[in-house]
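ARCHIVE ENTRY
Sequence with per-residue tokens
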Amino acid sequence: MTMAPETEADLIPVSALEHFSYCPRQYALIHREQTFDDNVYTMRGRLDHERVEEAGPTTEGGMRVERSLPIWSARLGLIGKADVVEFHGDGPYPVEYKHGRLEPDRHADLQLCAQAMCLEEMTGLPVPRGAVYHVSSRQRREVVCTPVLRQRVADAVAAIRRLNTQAQLPPPVADARCPPCSLVQTCFPYVVADKGRVRNLQRRLYQVESAT
């Protein structure tokens, strides 16, 4: 069971779920340490989101479409914005924009499902599915909000709350996720992960030279 936050400061951004799923250290650097660096991937992604926001709300074929819609969940303690929400006849349908081509992305799926769960709480209507729109390929990939995926959202929220009580940053993953990450020059994943090298650098840094 997920406990709701006691104060507004305890609310977790919906976008944090994707960061945490990708790498807990990335989440901590961005959302706790307020550290963020741009690279070509983040700049492209930001431009994609800005284009969505500029379009504003519309009506397409009799269907209301809201953009940058504020969303929240008191039960989960989440807050954020949905890129696009289409209001179909049977309820809302969230669409998350991601730069890149059509391919599975479990981190984006987690974020989308969290949006669906927020919209369910806000509207009282079921939101069984949504879609991730991959900008480069201009294709949608539908995501079904299964019980397993919903549980992953609840587990991630609980894990983030536990992490937020810890003073120390999570260790780096130091794997294939690191090179495309915009924080690689701040995180130093391969140096930090090599504990022997770190200890050696610390000894050399603080070594007092013997008096001659």
In short: The chain has a mean pLDDT of 84. The chain is about 40% helix and 20% strand. The longest strand covers residues 63-73.
